[in-house]
Amino acid sequence: MEKNDDKDPDLHHDDDHNDKSKEEEKGDTVSDDVDVDKKENVDVSNAETDHVDPGDNADKVNSPLGQEEAPPEIPQTIESLSEELDQLLASLSLHKEEHKDVTEEEKGEEGNYFQIPQFVGKFLDLFEDKLSKHDTVDPKTTWYQDPEEVSSLLEAVDRVSKLMELLLNTKSCLDHHESLINHAGSIQQRAMAFLEDEFRVLLEESVIKEPAVVTEDQQDHHSDSQDQDNVNNVPEGGDEKVEYPGYSEEMVVLLRKIVEKMKGAGYGCECKEAYLVGRRNILMRTLKQECEFEKVSIDEVQKMSWGELEREIPIWNKTVKDCSSLFFPGELKLAEKIFPGDEGSLFNIVTHGLAIQFLGFAEAVAMTRRSTEKLFKILDIYETLRDGFPAIEELFTEELRSELRSEVTSARSRLGETAINIFSDLENSIKSDSSKTPVPGGAVHPLTRYTMNYLKYSCEYKDTLEKVFKSHSKMEEEESTERAFANQLMRIMDLLDGNMEAKSKLYKDIPLSCIFMMNNGRYIVQKIKGSAEIHEVMGDTWCRKRSSELRTYHKNYQRETWGKLLGFLGHEGLMHNNKIVKPNLKERFKSFNATFDEIHKTQTTWVVNDEQLQSELRVSITAVMIPAYRAFMARFGQYLDPGRQTEKYVKYQPEDIEDLIDQLFEGNTSSSSTATAKRRT
């Protein structure tokens, strides 16, 4: 750094400032004792102020043997000069107070003039050398590892700042010590630039560990396991527990001291700017590492495919929750420790933009094109805003807290309205599903599966949806919003019932129509019974009513299919004058066999996937058919001639019928035209 050649005369510097011998000679001739306590005006002795011819002492040093030699010089250091400088600063402070009311006319009087000893310049030069040494070290931050060096450097900064403050605010000094003020000011600027750079580097690079996020599920176990898990969170050889943002206490103390020194020198704004830039970068880097989070604009969200948004939304949810519980509180605590008194404003600047970005993302998702599959991700965002953001809001100052609450309310309203509209879209999709192609085998219709799975999953968000419908429904009467979600669910179920009933009429075979209604009805009931949330909404009364309807369809199916077959096993038309009419009996067996074969052929292709319903149907058929067939065989089988006639007309034994009934409803489309069963003998 260049120094001003026009040195202040009171420093007693020779023009050749870098000549060591001349400095030593001057040091011998200057008395640093300044006593302002005994009298009002400062008096510096002639011995301190008179120039001494350096040649006088030089002659003694270089004289022949036997002549007097100069005593050995004691090297001057920052430490050795600090005590003298402290005394001088105290004297100068007292002088400033005593002469603060001196008039312009009195300024020039000798008693009002404060002379600065030469060692002040020496102290400034030594401090500049120290800064130069650390500026050239790579890496620069090794200085902070030596506590003595930290203390020496920061105390020197403090002394230079106090010197500048006193010089600039003492009237006589401003008039008589301009060159000293310029010199000290230049060194102070260099010191501030050095500390600002060091502050930034230490802030960025001295994080011991950016700790992993503790999830909600781990919270209960975190305290018990913290000691064991803390191995990776401490520096080697230490027992210190380090939480986000991951600085050791020693480093926090050092950073705070740097802040204090820079603020004391009037460089607080520069220090704050370095902190803000550094912490914003570190926070964003941490969010990317821990949560895979990266900022996206509203326009970018609008252009994303749903597949991309499905990946982004869980990341957003995790990031907001972690910021609520860990990262934002950590930032506020750090600001409190390093900038006590200014933490609120600094925390606001570091985090407020990110909080607003979170809310922008939520609103952008709500504004994307609606579709039923988006409901649950939208509800996830809604819940995160509801549960996670209040804790974030409380960290901010009152003004920003009110702003955030307003933004959160807006975002939640938009999300809530979107969720309600999606439910309306589901209603409309059921109404508009007018497909005319019956489902093969009377199986559960895809619309039933989709709707019930959708409603089952929706009811896992029951509490949230009830809140959404109550808070964001456009219904005018409060009473109608109390059970808005339950009413919506009932409407959807009624619409689904009506749709399935209409689709059952697409089957020309009435028994198959009954199987279709049983399949869909059983699927709906089982879904409701299997979900406590949806069962709570629909209620026991609704389930009992639906089960009763299923029994009706079951009876209709049995009557339409097996009632006709049972007609062949009656006695009517087989007896005449108490004698068996064999041709009629033979025809009866043939008709029974043909009808049963047709039923078996057809109904093995029908589908009943619910094992319980399938079993109930087979058991009920067996309970009706086997006793009747067994009785018919016992009563009339004996009238057929043994051998070929019996084999021709008695195709099945009761056990065969039972086995064939157990083949029904398998959805086997490759059945042969004739029922086959292993004949039992």
Task: Annotate the secondary structure layout.
Blueprint: H1 20-29, H2 46-49, H3 54-61, H4 78-98, H5 104-107, H6 119-135, H7 147-168, H8 171-176, H9 178-205, H10 216-229, H11 249-264, H12 268-291, H13 298-303, H14 306-338, H15 343-366, H16 375-395, H17 398-432, H18 446-459, H19 462-472, H20 478-482, H21 484-504, H22 510-529, H23 532-567, E1 575-576, E2 579-580, H24 582-603, H25 611-636, H26 644-649, H27 654-661
Antiparallel strand pairs: 1-2
Protein name: Exocyst subunit Exo70 family protein
Biased composition (Basic and acidic residues): 1-29, 36-59
GO molecular function, one term: phosphatidylinositol-4,5-bisphosphate binding
N-to-C series of helices and strands: HHHHHHHHHHHHHHHHHHHHHHHEEHHHH
Shape from CA axes?
rod-shaped
Helix count from the secondary structure assignment: 27
Kindly report the CATH topology of the largest domain.
Methane Monooxygenase Hydroxylase, Chain G, domain 1
What structural class should be given to the helix and strand makeup?
Answer: mainly alpha
Taken as a percent bin, the fraction of beta residues is: under 5%
How many domain modules?
4
Major pleated sheet: 2 strands, antiparallel
At CATH's second level, what is the architecture of the largest domain? Up-down Bundle
Number of strands: 2
Radius of gyration: 48 Å
- The level of helicity is 55-70%
User: What multimeric state do the chains show?
Assistant: single chain
Measured distance between first and last alpha carbons:
117 Å
Using the coordinates above, name the CATH class of the largest domain.
Mainly Alpha
Strand order of the largest sheet: 1-2
Low-confidence regions: 1-67, 210-240, 677-681
Average pLDDT works out at 80
